[in-house]
Write a structure and sequence with these properties.
The protein has 300 residues and is α/β, with parallel strands linked by helices. The chain has a single domain, classed as TIM Barrel (Alpha-Beta Barrel). 32% of the residues lie in helices and 21% in strands. The chain is built from 10 helices and 16 strands. It has an 8-stranded parallel beta barrel with strand order 3-4-7-8-9-10-15-16, surrounded by 5 helices. β5 and β6 form a beta hairpin. α5 runs parallel beside α6 and α8 packs across α10. The longest helix is centred in the last third of the chain and has 16 residues. The protein is globular, with a radius of gyration of 18 Å. The two termini are 28 Å apart. 50% of the residues are buried.
Length: 300
């Protein structure tokens, strides 16, 4: 059974990607990280960020709403203290969270010569910050500017992580593709609000947050399918995958890779279970190469 997936010249041992923000910087659970196709660090900003005030997480079995607010050590500390300690065999992608377009220039110039870094995920989709974040990803023009800048600064892989909040993600994905991105990631989290009835105010310390988990999977499936028909670069699904057959569905809808996110916060070993489930399904169906499934949804 061949689980390999290729995106251009990049090889992934299987289609599973550990999503940004769910495994920190990759310093722990390396036994899990070294079994998946790729690992994406939590978002790195130019300056250190303390994130939003608590509480930051609201969750049930079907949904997670987070308002972490891009807490991270910043570019300098990540490069000098964290990156030298990362020791994994899995391709390492650094999630870059710029507040301004110029921030992405600073971040890429600071990390583009690092041999450990396979590529960058441009975070144009985070709804948990008041500046930058999804605001950059809601405009095709701004997406094109950020992606073009990134492409001009490095030959490493560029993934553009897009939002479907208050915009047509087909247009922003097309802009990213036109600007030279290697792949688009669809769709991060959805805007969400949790209300504390006793106090008649938002429950989360940051006010609103981002909805993820199994509840958003049908939405993400639809968006992945729509975008995959719109662009000629690979699409990476992000949102709601929790078992092997979820991965199969995303591949059929047009995704080349599938990010595993919120479930990692509950069970850090979840990706290994998902991988086993994927292998079991492929074996039962007599499918030799997982790549055979990509974009093979019928009847729509």
């Amino acid at each position: 059974m061949n689980l390999e997936v290729f995106l251009g010249k990049s090889r992934f041992r299987n289609p599973l990607v550990l999503a940004s923000g769910t495994f920190g910087y990759g310093l722990t659970y390396t036994d899990v990280i070294d079994r998946v196709g790729a690992f994406v660090t939590k978002g790195i900003t130019v300056q250190e960020r303390v994130g939003n005030p608590p509480p930051r997480i609201w969750d049930t079995k079907e949904t997670v709403v987070n308002s972490v607010g891009l807490e991270n050590v910043g570019l300098k500390r990540f490069k000098e203290e964290i990156l030298p300690e990362i020791d994994i065999s899995t391709p390492l992608y650094v999630n870059l969270a710029g507040v301004t377009i110029d921030d992405f220039r600073i971040l890429i110039e600071g990390l583009r010569d690092e041999e450990k870094v396979e590529g960058f995920e441009l975070n144009l989709s985070c709804p948990n910050v008041k500046e930058g974040g999804a605001a950059l990803g809601q405009s095709a023009d701004r997406v094109r500017k950020v992606a073009s800048l990134a492409r001009s600064l490095t030959t490493k892989s560029i993934w553009v992580k897009l939002t479907s909040n208050f915009c047509d993600v087909r247009e922003t994905a097309a802009a990213a593709a036109d600007a030279g991105a290697d792949a688009v990631v669809i769709v991060n989290t959805l805007n969400a609000l949790i209300i504390d009835l006793a106090n008649r105010k938002p429950f989360l310390g940051g006010g609103s947050g981002g909805l993820s988990g199994p509840a958003i999977k049908p939405h993400v499936l639809y968006m992945v399918h729509q975008v995959s028909k719109q662009v000629d670069i690979p699409v990476i699904a992000s949102g709601g995958a929790g078992c092997g057959t979820d991965v199969v569905e995303y591949l059929l809808a047009g995704a080349s890779l599938v990010q595993i996110g919120s479930i990692n916060l509950v069970d850090p070993q979840a990706s290994l279970r998902i991988l086993k489930g994927l292998e079991g399904w492929l074996k039962r169906e007599g499918i030799v190469c997982v790549s055979e499934l990509i974009g093979r949804l019928e009847g729509i």
